[in-house]
Design brief:
Blueprint (H helix, E strand, L loop, with lengths): L5 H57 L4 H12 L7 E5 L4 E4 L10 E10 L2 E10 L1 H49 L17 H50 L4 H33 L3 E2 L2 E4 H18 L3 E5 L6 E4 L1 H17 L6 E8 L3 E8 L31 H11 L3 E7 L3 E9 H4 L5 E2 L6
Helix pairs in contact: 1-2, 1-3, 4-5, 5-8, 6-7, 7-8
């Protein structure tokens, strides 16, 4: 199927609509004019027949029993009629026709007929008037309209094609500019016409899309670079350890130590890859995570039990205020466990030895709120807007053995549950992470797309 340009289709549609409108207008004009002209003739004939009837009754009463005298008077009356008009009056005993000559067989007449009773006798009256001049006028008008309509359509189509070409010229410029934009020059933008019309708004929308695309590509490039950098370190350790172990014969204990070091680095690298897969699958939405009614208190108690040993090593006290009532939401148990594990582990990790970590869960009218607060090193104002970015680590967090993916995973899990994470922190004064689950919306949350790595 051959495709046509928008300009061609606009011109064809414009010409078709204009042709239909002109044909309709011409038809209505012709019909209205014909109806008006014929109506005037009918009105004139009706009035003429009425006057003739009254005049006949007057003369018949004036000359009773003298039909010839009546005919002479009617002849004088009819002489004042328009040329080519005729009058025919008949009854059983009386007949009058004007003019005496028979009308041309090619002449076209408009007639009116009526019956009346006079002197006890029924008369049939017919009056007619030629309409050749009217029909000729209508024929001329029809010919004129049929001649002008194609001309008007042709001129209008040419004008429409010119206007559509001018109107769509910015579209061609936008298409040309868009064709020139590639991954190498995503900073280029489309021209925005100074017309404030739909095309200008389209250019603005496309430029906004290019802004988002450029930001996404930059984020992806940075993500790939960071992932490569993070994977390079454990791979280098594994390679170096293996090469050192293979340079010469060593004791079984040395080989065992090298293998243990390789296994530890492999485990760290496996965890990193699984976390990356978790984030990637949550972005693309390819894996389902079933949701079911879940008591938040039970999950928090389990997380506290797992991390209490780590906290005891550093003499950090975990204060949990979870209440006695069940806090039910629609959630995925392993995912929620991972979310709170990240938050509580960070709170312990960045708290000072001998400090405290506070864990609380409470219900409001429309939310269930879980709060994790520490009195540790805090987060600077410069780092706070970036802590949920992947591989981002503040200067104070470097050297902790992490990859900067924990909070990104926590945010992805929270979004999958329709929850929000709020952060309040001041450098040197600790941090507060608050997760808000909407109770009413929790039952409407669809299965999220998230793949969880083992905890």
């Amino acid at each position: 199927m051959r495709t046509r340009s928008i300009r061609f289709r606009l011109t064809v549609w414009y010409a078709a609509v204009l042709a239909a409108a002109l044909v309709l207008f011409a038809a209505l004009l012709w019909i209205a004019l014909r109806h008006r002209l014929m109506g005037e003739i009918d009105e004139d004939l009706a009035g003429r027949a009425g006057r003739f009837e009254r005049y006949f009754e007057y003369e018949a009463a004036k000359y009773p029993g003298e039909p010839n005298e009546v005919k002479e008077e009617l002849q004088e009356f009819s002489a004042a009629l328009p040329p080519s008009s005729f009058i025919d009056l008949r009854s059983r005993s009386f007949s009058f026709h004007y003019p005496d000559a028979t009308p041309s067989p090619h002449a076209r007449f408009r007639t009116t007929e009526r019956q009346f009773v006079s002197g006890g006798e029924t008369y049939h009256l017919e009056a007619g008037e030629p309409v050749d001049s009217v029909l000729h006028t209508l024929d001329l008008l029809r010919l004129l309209l049929l001649s002008l309509i194609p001309l008007v359509i042709a001129v209008a189509s040419a004008g429409g094609a010119w206007l559509s070409r001018r109107a769509l010229k910015p579209v061609g410029q936008i298409a040309q500019a868009a064709h020139a934009i590639s991954i190498e020059n995503l900073s280029e933008r489309l021209p925005v016409p100074a017309t404030a019309d739909e095309i200008a708004r389209l250019s603005q929308v496309l430029n906004a899309m290019l802004d988002r695309l450029e930001a996404a590509v930059k984020t992806l490039s940075q993500f790939v670079a960071d992932a490569s950098h993070e994977l390079r370190t454990p791979l280098a350790v594994i390679r170096t350890t293996a090469e050192l172990a293979l340079r010469r014969a060593r004791s079984p204990e040395v080989y065992r130590g090298s293998l243990q070091e390789i296994a530890a680095e492999t485990e760290r690298m496996t965890q990193l890859v699984e976390d990356l897969l978790t984030l990637a699958r949550s972005d693309t939405g390819t894996v389902e995570m079933p949701l079911a009614p879940l008591d938040v208190r039970g999950v928090l108690e389990s997380v506290c039990a797992e991390l209490r040993g780590l906290a005891d090593v550093r003499r950090i006290r975990i204060e949990a205020s979870l209440g006695q009532d069940a806090l039910l939401i629609l959630a995925n148990g392993p995912a929620l466990h991972r979310l709170f594990m990240v938050l509580l582990d960070n709170a312990i990790k960045y708290s000072r030895d001998g400090g405290e970590v506070h864990l609380a869960a409470e219900r409001s009218d429309s939310h269930i709120v879980v709060t994790v607060a520490d009195s540790g090193i805090g987060i600077s104002a410069a780092d706070l807007p970036h802590i949920f970015q992947r591989f981002y680590r503040a200067d104070s967090a470097r050297g902790d053995g992490g990859y900067g993916l924990g909070l990104s995973l926590a945010e992805s899990i929270a979004k999958a549950h329709g929850a929000e994470i709020e952060v309040y922190s001041r450098e040197g004064e600790g941090s507060v992470f608050r997760v808000k689950f909407a109770v009413r919306a929790s039952h409407r949350v669809s299965s999220a797309n998230l793949q969880l790595s083992p905890l």
